[in-house]
Task: inverse folding
């Protein structure tokens, strides 16, 4: 889209953690941000170049923080255009925001004091809009912890223009109270970094109306967290749904303390979700003994908890290897009075983000592998052949059950309906592709059995409404399964699938 037809966009641009740049910004008609060490942004023609420049300027920053800063600076230099609207929350005038319009390109003013070198010209239209004049959903967007952030939800640009002109927020078509996710984000951004909002991964997903970590759900949650300057610690894309994560701020600017210092062990909300499954999605918590433990103690612990192996890790987290029943047997053959050291053997250790498929042979050949934490130092997880088999079984089970349901539906359709009946169950533009029951989709079976006349042809002594209701529910479950996730189906959804299968097995009892 050319600049002539581009609609003005709206941006949040802060002026320092305590408002130290606000006065000059308003007096001189500027938007001012930090990041002095990276220098003139005009030196970086591409996103990648800017990211490399930031990595060089701030070598101690994590990849998550570098990605976050790259996005903000790229917007400030390149994406923001003349005529776009700017909102600057005022730390020096609490409860108020300033609204202006961008009137010039990015500039780097090398002669200015530190913290005042990266600027854009802005015509400040209304420097004192009350926070109370802004509706809750837009206030939630303005609560982002980022220095530079796009404001896109709920007709934000048009509403900010109205605020600049009239001092009131008109809302948007279908105006409603903030969603659960919006309220959660608003609460999390308002928290002191030393007291972050904590919740289970399952609860986090539920705030976005999701039950499983599908690619679409993860992408949406990451984008919303990133736009609010938040991430999770630890990563919400790893571990069990019952694990607890904290919503913590990403470092905002160099020199601005978000309360975390150098953020470790957090979700990378900036980079795209990996297309391939990695080990971090699967490992179980590691059980271990120290290298000074007695071998009898280790054997007793293994018997008590039915472990096939234990990691040998000292209290200072020094990793020594593994003790297994095989290594114990070999130690007893080699010595009359073996120690734990005699039974400790090397074991394969891989990083948490290693590709799962690349490790399958090693897991089955060795029986297990140990997994390093995201810090790439501590060994904190284990993945056994039994775990892998169970995980794949969990993932495959719903597909097998639904496949049986589809097979039974297809056989019933072949036995009781003619071709005209089958064609009547599909939209007009799809009728030509239907030649037998195998051409019907699950949704087509719902339409097929909805009709009372066709239902009577089946001769099933079941309540039609209940069967159709279950068919519709299982169709939705099937569609959900197509969005692959490592998380299992809920018990409620399994109950729906099993309920339909029980009816089909009863009505069509042939194996």
Result:
């Amino acid at each position: 889209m050319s600049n002539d037809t581009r609609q003005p966009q709206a941006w949040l641009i802060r002026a320092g953690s305590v408002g130290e740049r606000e006065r000059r910004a308003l007096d001189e008609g500027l938007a001012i941000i930090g990041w002095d060490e990276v220098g003139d942004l005009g030196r970086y023609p591409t996103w990648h170049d800017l990211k490399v420049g930031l990595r060089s300027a701030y070598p101690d920053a994590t990849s998550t923080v570098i990605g976050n800063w790259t996005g903000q600076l790229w917007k400030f230099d390149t994406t923001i255009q003349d005529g776009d609207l700017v909102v600057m929350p005022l730390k020096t005038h609490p409860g108020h925001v300033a609204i202006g319009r961008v009137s010039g390109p990015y500039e780097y003013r090398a002669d200015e004091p530190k913290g005042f070198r990266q600027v854009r010209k802005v015509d400040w239209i209304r420097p004192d809009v009350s926070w109370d004049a802004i509706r809750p959903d837009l206030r939630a967007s303005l609560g982002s912890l980022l220095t530079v952030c796009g404001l896109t939800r709920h007709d934000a640009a048009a509403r900010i223009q109205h605020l600049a002109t009239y001092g009131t927020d008109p809302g948007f078509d279908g105006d409603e109270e903030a969603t659960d996710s919006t309220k959660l984000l608003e609460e999390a951004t308002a928290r002191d970094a030393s007291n972050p909002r904590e919740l289970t991964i399952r609860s986090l997903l539920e705030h976005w109306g999701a039950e499983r970590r599908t690619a679409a759900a993860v992408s949406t949650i990451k984008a919303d967290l990133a736009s609010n300057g938040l991430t999770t610690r630890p990563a919400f894309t790893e571990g069990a749904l019952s694990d607890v994560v904290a919503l913590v701020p990403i470092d905002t600017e160099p020199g601005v303390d978000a309360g975390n210092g150098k953020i470790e062990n957090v979700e990378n909300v900036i980079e795209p979700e990996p297309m391939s499954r990695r080990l971090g999605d699967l490992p179980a918590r590691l059980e271990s003994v120290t290298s000074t433990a007695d071998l009898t103690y280790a054997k007793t612990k293994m018997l008590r908890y039915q472990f096939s192996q234990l990691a040998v890790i000292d209290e200072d987290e020094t990793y020594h290897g593994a003790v297994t029943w095989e290594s114990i047997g070999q130690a007893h053959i080699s010595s009359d009075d073996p120690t734990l050291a005699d039974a400790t053997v090397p074991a394969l250790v891989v990083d948490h983000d290693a590709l799962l498929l690349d490790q399958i042979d090693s897991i089955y050949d060795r029986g297990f592998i140990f997994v390093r934490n995201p810090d790439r130092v501590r060994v904190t997880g284990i993945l056994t052949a039994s775990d892998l088999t169970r995980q794949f079984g969990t993932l495959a089970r719903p597909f097998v059950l639904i496949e049986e349901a589809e097979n039974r539906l297809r056989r019933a359709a072949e036995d009781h309906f003619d071709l005209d009946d089958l064609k009547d169950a599909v939209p007009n533009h799809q009728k030509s592709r239907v030649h037998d029951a195998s051409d019907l989709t699950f949704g087509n079976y719902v339409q097929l059995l909805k009709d009372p006349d066709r239902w009577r042809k089946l001769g099933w002594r079941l309540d039609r409404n209940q069967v159709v209701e279950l068919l519709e529910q299982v169709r939705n479950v099937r569609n959900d399964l197509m969005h692959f996730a490592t998380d299992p189906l809920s018990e409620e959804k399994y109950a729906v699938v099993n309920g339909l299968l029980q009816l089909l097995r009863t009505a069509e009892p042939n194996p």
